[in-house]
Amino acid sequence: MNPFAEAWVQRTKHEVLNHFLVFGENHLRHIVACWLTYYHRFRPHQSLGNVPLGDAGLPPPEPIAGGPLRLDDIVCHESLGGLLRHYERCAA
């Protein structure tokens, strides 16, 4: 009935739940809780100009001065066994 709810359920199913064997209600709740945290805090949303929901009210970040970005400057954070990943620059 609601296209937004149906899209969210389908996205959750295809991006997360199809990759797991769920062993009970508590396991399902843990998976969905991790997905919701990732979805609201880190996943970019096209309708917001590829900005995560948590950063929607903030102005776009300014370019970082100080030379080229090195691989050592990037940190990867994983959840759900590496299925969900987000990257950020290390603090100086």
Order of helices and strands: HHEEEE
| Major beta sheet, strand line-up | 1-2
The major β-sheet equals: 2 strands, antiparallel
Mean pLDDT: 78
Task: Please give the domain count.
Answer: 1
Q: Structural class of the secondary elements? A: alpha+beta
Strand content: 15-25%
Radius of gyration (Å): 16 Å
* Helical run tally: 2
Global outline = flat
Share in helix:
25-40%
From the N-terminal CA to the C-terminal CA, the straight-line distance is: 49 Å
User: How is the quaternary structure best described?
Assistant: single chain
Find the count of extended strands (DSSP E, 2+ residues). 4
Uncertain runs: none
Compact overview of the structure:
The protein has 92 residues and is α+β, with helices and mostly antiparallel strands. The chain is built from 2 helices and 4 strands; from the N terminus they run ααββββ. The termini are far apart.
